[in-house]
Design goal:
Elements (H helix, E strand, L loop, with lengths): L34 H9 L3 E5 L6 H15 L3 E6 L10 H20 L3 H13 L4 H12 L4 E6 L6 H13 L11 E6 L7 E4 L4 E4 H4 L3 E6 L5 H15 L7 H9 L3 H15 L9 H14 L2 H8 L4 H12 L10 H10 L2 E4 L2 E4 L2 H11 L1 H7 L17 H20 L8 H14 L3 E6 L7 E9 L2 E11 L4 H19 L4 E6 L7 H4 L1 E7 L2 E7 L1
Parallel strand pairs: 1-4, 1-7, 2-3, 3-4, 12-13, 13-15
Antiparallel strand pairs: 5-6, 8-9, 10-11, 11-12, 14-15
Length: 536
């Protein structure tokens, strides 16, 4: 029996719930914001918003801040999570009954303050659901010698009239602070309250969060880890176990995650505690790639929550042109749509425009959109058919087979995609994914307005690596103009990826055009390199 599994747990990378630095590798929570800025806002009696995508460390930060404020001796600070109130949906009385009870319980449990437990039910009876929160907080503030600071986490989990009621009750007590209402309140969620679009069943109208809570002074966004912070976090594992991270690992993790905290921790946990259990051996880039594949195939909760959003229309308005390299304006996307995806963490703003947030999401999104297609292809396509005697991928045989497959099945398969406009690109990626699973990987690059999608197939051949660039374009102009545009783009990506193997695939979606005119193969040369052009 391994006696090390008893007693105090060894530290590990956290992937579920708030970080506990006693058992988790962690970065100092209070250093993730300018603490002096936060303290100044509280001192100035401000109400403000803290928001960030899910599992980025918001709860960990708020709990650390509450502890810091209480230990300062100046404030009576309470953290409360109101997410469970979501179950009541628009039933305001049921939701407020839970919220008031939860605030009272947390005050008693964490602050040893029993006052709220003695009054919250009376507030509900006295003022009803639409005034009970205001009444309880007013009486608590008047009773408590120190100024009260209240943190309400998962505020955007509340629904409809419940959320409207909570926001309005907080707003209506604002002018009584600090003697008769909390001095400062932080509302925490995925999105900025000004972006809430809340449907009121009672009013049969859409209420804007900014109008229901127009006392907000600031909106602060919790950022992802920097590359240096990833290195600092991983160094804690090395210091604890002696297990090293090989050169290039930190850079690879940064490229795969762009510092998204859950992904950073999940990759490390999979690599260090599942794959690389022998801590005498270093974690290599190959192990990180294997860990990434495990996360994607297992569809851990974080990734599952992310892909659930792909069904929303406003998400599709941004992702369809992004997957195709087209313009947002052609698909009716608006600035609020973009902000929504940024808040969810699906996309980010970069120097080149809007891009999918990180390399793992770039891979997850098309694989999720084509998951059923990939399962269906398992019974009709055998990867072994496209492997040459030397173990390399036979790209000519593979892409010739795709031309025939697309001709026969494209109309049927594209109708199955929720993202029908991106159907050709998604179908090609599903076909390629079926081939490379188990023997390699596909790296993807998308970008609005680029008029193309870049794929890099990385295939293991013994101790060597085969790297194949595939450039995807939709034929908008004539065939020759599309090829003339595509050749330098393909060469540019080949040069970037360090390979001489390049293929340009052009989808001709002209309605009524015979397949004999759409399907062709020809060899072109650009900057001294051979590029095979495939018409589909």
């Amino acid at each position: 029996m391994d006696t090390s599994l008893f007693g105090t747990p060894k530290r590990f990378f956290n992937t579920a719930g708030p970080v506990d630095c006693d058992i988790n590798y962690c970065l100092p929570a209070l250093e993730r914001f300018d603490l002096n800025e936060i303290l100044a806002l509280i001192q100035q009696r401000r109400y403000f918003i803290l928001h960030a995508p899910r599992q980025t460390g918001k709860t960990t930060y708020l709990k650390a801040l509450a502890k810091h404020l209480n230990e300062s001796g100046y404030y009576h600070c309470l953290y409360v999570n109101v997410e469970a109130g979501q179950a009541a949906r628009g039933k305001v009385h049921d939701a407020l009954q839970f919220i008031l009870g939860e605030i009272a319980f947390e005050a008693m449990n964490n602050l040893q303050d029993t006052y709220l437990d003695s009054i919250w039910q009376h507030s509900l009876e006295r003022r009803g659901a639409y005034g009970a929160l205001n009444d309880m907080l007013s009486r608590w503030s008047s009773h408590t010698p120190k100024p009260i600071v209240l943190f309400m986490d998962e505020i955007d989990a509340l629904i409809g009239d419940t959320l409207i009621s909570v926001l309005r009750q907080l707003r209506s007590g604002y002018d009584k602070r600090p003697e008769g209402f909390p001095q400062s309140i932080i509302l925490c969620g995925v999105r900025d309250v000004r972006d809430y679009r809340i449907f009121s069943d009672e009013q049969q109208a859409m209420i804007l969060g900014g109008s229901a809570f127009n006392i907000k002074a600031e909106s602060l966004r919790l950022s992802n880890f920097t590359q240096q912070e990833i290195a600092t976090l991983y160094q804690q594992h090395t210091d604890t176990t002696g297990q090293r991270f090989a050169p290039g690992v930190i850079e690879m993790v940064w490229e795969l995650t762009q510092g998204q905290p859950w992904l950073v921790n999940a990759l490390a946990y999979e690599a260090c505690f599942k794959i690389g259990k022998d801590h005498a051996q270093p974690i290599t880039t190959e192990i990180i790639h294997e860990a990434k594949e495990h996360l994607i195939l297992r569809r851990d909760t974080h990734l599952d929550q992310l892909t659930h959003k792909l069904t929303e229309e406003r998400v599709q308005r941004v992702l369809v042109p992004l997957l195709q390299g087209e313009s947002l304006y052609d698909y009716g996307a608006t600035e609020p749509d973009i902000e929504y995806l940024v808040d969810l963490g699906l996309v980010r703003r970069s120097g080149t425009g809007i891009v999918i947030a990180n390399a793992i999401y770039q891979e997850v999104i098309p694989r999720e959109l084509t998951s059923i297609t990939q399962l269906s292809l398992e019974s009709t396509i055998r990867p072994a058919w496209y492997i040459a005697p030397d173990g390399s991928l036979d790209m000519h045989k593979l892409l010739t087979a795709f031309q025939a497959f697309f001709r026969e099945h494209s109309e049927h398969w594209e109708d199955r995609f929720r993202y029908k406009e991106a159907g050709p690109q998604l179908l090609l990626q599903a076909f390629l994914q079926r081939i490379v699973n188990g023997g390699g990987r596909i790296e993807r690059e998308y970008g609005l307005g680029r008029k193309r999608t870049d794929l890099l197939i990385v295939w293991r051949v013994g101790n060597e690596t085969q790297r194949v660039v595939i450039e995807i374009k939709i034929q908008h102009k004539s065939r020759e103009k599309t090829i003339a545009q595509g050749l330098p783009q393909t060469w540019e990506y080949m040069d970037k990826c360090g390979t001489t193997s390049g293929h340009l695939i052009i989808f001709d979606r002209t309605v009524g055009k015979p397949w004999e005119e759409k399907i062709y193969t020809r060899v072109e040369h650009y900057n001294g390199h051979e590029i095979v052009v495939w018409g589909v």
